[in-house]
Amino acid sequence: MKMETKQNPPPHQSARCAHRRWPASRSVARHLEDSIAVPIDPCAVSADTPGPESELGEPLSLQSLTEPTIASTFRMSVDGDRSRRPSFAAPKPRHPWTARSMNTAIDLFAGAGGLSTGLRVAGFDVRGAVELDPTSAATYRANHPSTHVVVRDIRSITGPWLLREVGLERGELDLLTGCPPCQGFSSLRTRRRATRSGDPRNDLVQEVLRLIRSIRPRAVVLENVPGLAQNPRFSLLRSGLTRSGYSHDFTVVDATRYGVPQRRKRLVLLALRGQRPVPVDWAAPTGIVFRTVRDTIAQLPPAGGSGDPLHDAPERRSRNVLARIQATPKDGGSRRDVPEEFALDCHLASDGYSDVYGRMAWDSPSPTITSGCHNPSKGRFLHPQEDRAITLREAALLQTFPPSYQFDLSRGKEHVARQIGNAFPPRLIEPIATRLAQEVLS
Ligand SMILES: C[S@@+](CC[C@H](N)C(=O)[O-])C[C@H]1O[C@@H](n2cnc3c(N)ncnc32)[C@H](O)[C@@H]1O
């Protein structure tokens, strides 16, 4: 099956031009694609249910979903400003190829697009994305130029307006997804004595319910931290789904079982319109390869001279901190293993968070990649071997973003680390979305 493509892409979207604009990440990507044996999940695109294809007729995969592939495969205009103001004009058909039966999706709280990336590999046409933060939205746009990105607070959006923006009618959308911000529910935050239910971000879960009611998608996938299950808002969401005619089920998925080289547990809820029974094993992964830090980052060129801004961004450390990093045993060493003379004063005083200033271990999955993943004082984020924190590119790869996924570094490393740490790993959603497409939405 071949996708409909226009003959003359805008010059800024051609593969050659993309290469010029992003030479650095291309070099890392090429290096990885040449040398790394990161297998494409066998269940990602099955042989008998064709997914989207590149111009060469090859199925899209996380490895092939690089910027030039996106640009050349999905040739749509990128209207940077449109999403900043609501448009009340009749929508132009933005997705001429979807007559060919791709499932449609809208991604709420889209962030940098981790979840959308996995959806696209699973064959979804992600028509729209809603994201409040302009920096994350810029990242999203750069990597998903065919998706209409709405940079607005979800609370200011109505279902009918959003449907008009993406050219769909009520009840027509196949999949509505969303990862409402989860900081308010996370166990880490609870340990730091923030209240679970008092965080205003938690009300955004109810915003999703409001949009489900007005958009009436065929299926809904929501992701959050496992702590959501204990929150009264989750019970409200579930009873609201039932009252709105959606059957649903939820489970906590372990990312390592999905081929993500990272310990990360997430609650995933699947809801289906019309009280259709949710298949019992809807989230069961099959045929997935266990992956480690070594599988994922060992083959990268040396950081600092790779030509990839995400792999080369310098880090500054005081002499004391550098000495203690150097004294931390390679390949999994911890703060506890460092002689006392190297200990930092703040660590002598407290015993908590033993993972901080720890090294990752080569042959294990990484710890959870968080928004502090570039900073060893925020967790076990030191490189297994080198005397530095993991680079942003390494963090993105551990989150299973494709090797040349672009991030907007213009506002500094913290902003990129936040986008990476907040993302739903593409490889985690991909098998779930593939099964959903093949067995439920087909
Ligand atoms: C957990 S992150 C989503 C990650 C994303 N799904 C991914 O896979 O990359 C939550 C996102 O919601 C956005 N957000 C927070 N409040 C919002 C609001 N009121 N309206 C729209 N987006 C919001 C945040 O900026 C953040 O990017």
Give a short summary of the structure.
The protein is of the alpha/beta class and 442 residues long. It has helices at residues 15-21, 23-35, 67-73, 114-121, 134-143, 159-166, 187-191, 204-215, 232-243, 293-297, 309-312, 319-327, 345-349, 392-398, 413-422, 426-440, and strands at 103-108, 124-130, 148-150, 175-178, 219-224, 246-254, 265-273. The chain is built from 16 helices and seven strands.
Describe the structure.
The chain is of the alpha/beta class. The protein folds into two domains: 11-289 and 423-440, Rossmann fold (3-Layer(aba) Sandwich), CATH 3.40.50; 293-411, DNA Methylase, subunit A, domain 2 (DNA Methylase, Chain A, domain 2, Alpha-Beta Complex). 31% of the residues lie in helices and 10% in strands. It is built from 16 helices and seven strands. It has helices at residues 15-21, 23-35, 67-73, 114-121, 134-143, 159-166, 187-191, 204-215, 232-243, 293-297, 309-312, 319-327, 345-349, 392-398, 413-422, 426-440, and strands at residues 103-108, 124-130, 148-150, 175-178, 219-224, 246-254, 265-273. The chain has a seven-stranded mixed sheet with strand order 3-2-1-4-5-7-6, sandwiched between helices. Strand 1, helix 4 and strand 2 (124-130) form a beta-alpha-beta unit. Helix 1 (15-21) packs antiparallel against helix 3 (67-73) and helix 8 packs parallel to helix 9. The protein is elongated. It starts with 14 loop residues before the first helix and ends with a helix. The model is unreliable at 1-24, 32-59, 66-100 and 190-196 (pLDDT under 50). Residues 109-115, 130-133, 136, 153-155, 179, 181-182, 204, 422-424 line the site of S-adenosylmethionine.
